[in-house]
Amino acid sequence: MQSNFYVWTATKKNCMDILMYVGLFAVSIAVLLKASDWFVDSAERIGLSWGVSPFVIGVTIVAFGTSLPELASSIAAVTSGNSEIVIGNVVGSNVANILLVLGLTAWVAKNIEIKDNIMDIDMPLLVASSFLLWYSCSDGKLTIFEIILLLIALVFFLAKSFSGEKTDKDDRPKASAKDYVFLLLGGILVKFSADYTIVAIEQLSKIMEINQDFIALTAVAIATSLPEVIVSIGAARKGKADIAIGNVLGSNLFNTYAVTAIPSFFGSLAITDSIINFGLPFMISMTVLMALMCITHRISKWEGSILLILYCFFTYQLLVIEGLV
Fold first, then answer.
1. pLDDT in tens, 241-250
2. Where in the sequence is the domain holding 197, given as residue range(s)?
3. Over the Cα atoms of the chain, what is R_g?
4. Residue 169 forms part of a structural domain
5. pLDDT tens digits for 154-183?
6. For residue 144, is it within any domain?
7. DSSP secondary structure, 238-305, as one string
């Protein structure tokens, strides 16, 4: 009878701990998303005041801003000794951006009309980045040469984006001191909320005896992809669904280059077999699928349905790999 009481007490404590850390995870993600929003809005206004064109801001500043949660949580993961989360976060977020973000946007907008000719440079860069990530991670580690290669690719992408003409001085809005304050405040809050997000993930994985890899590919990836979802669906409702393509392109490029390379300076990254054997090949396949869909310069509602079904398949396969189904 006494042993049953101890089991019941232990079970109750575990349930309370799970609820506490789920709450911490939810609050941390909420702060992370809000802080990222402040950072993006401020950076966008500052960029416009410097004469950067709205298109470049969308593909670079906004894309980087919506990828900021991934970067912050990845750095926090490495510094806390949970580096296996990083590549899982990158792969999971890239897959979620393509399948979940584009899929939902296509449903809301009925059709995503692609106005810019992204097949010339942007899409080949995205496909190449996915193969470069696979090449870098295929041996289970990232060398200093591969890290530098990823950073060079990031610099090339930024240089190519910012090489366009700047807007006329008369058309530039003025950035206020408030914009710079919110840029700094957003960055600080992103850092601390990311730290607590990783603490919650670490504790939940221990209590529930689930690999952090699985949590990174699912919960963290979906949560940190929420900015892309919000931006893309909001754009679709305003009749600017093609922004979703640029958002996914820019975010996935930043994830692959910055979110993989920058945390590597804080410690070596652990790359698991499930990422190498399933996650990366699946991400490459979905990137190629996105490129094929964009050839016609539109993504229809039924194609969006296929993307959403594929995301369900991806999640199910992860459950199978973890032995949860």
1. 666 777 788 8
2. 2-164+175-321
3. 20
4. no
5. 888 878 776 765 566 666 677 788 888 887
6. yes
7. TT-TTHHHHHHHHHHHHIIIIIHHGGGGGSPPP--HHIIIIIHHHHHHHHHHHHHHHTTTEEEHHHHH
Beta bridge partners of 113: 298
Instruction: Report pLDDT for 284.
Output: 96
Tell me whether residue 184 is in a domain: yes
Task: Judge whether 135 lies within some domain.
Answer: yes
User: Is 113 in a helix, a strand, or coil?
Assistant: strand
Name beta bridge partners: 48: none
Distance CA 165, CA 202 (A): 46
Q: Give the CATH number of the domain where residue 9 resides.
A: 1.20.1420.30
pLDDT digits (tens, 9 = 90+) for 107-151: 887 877 776 677 777 888 899 999 999 999 988 888 899 999 999
> Contact 157/253 with Cβ under 8 angstroms?
yes
Rounded distance, CA 224 to CA 67, Å? 8
CB burial readout 282-298, b (16+ within 10 A) else e: bbbebbebbbebbeebe
Percentage of residues of the chain with pLDDT beyond 90: 18
| Residues in a beta bridge with 298 | 113
- First-to-last alpha carbon distance for the chain, in angstroms, is 33
Q: Which H or E run contains 108?
A: helix 102-109
CA 276-282-284 angle, to 5 degrees, is 95
Number of domains making up the chain? 1
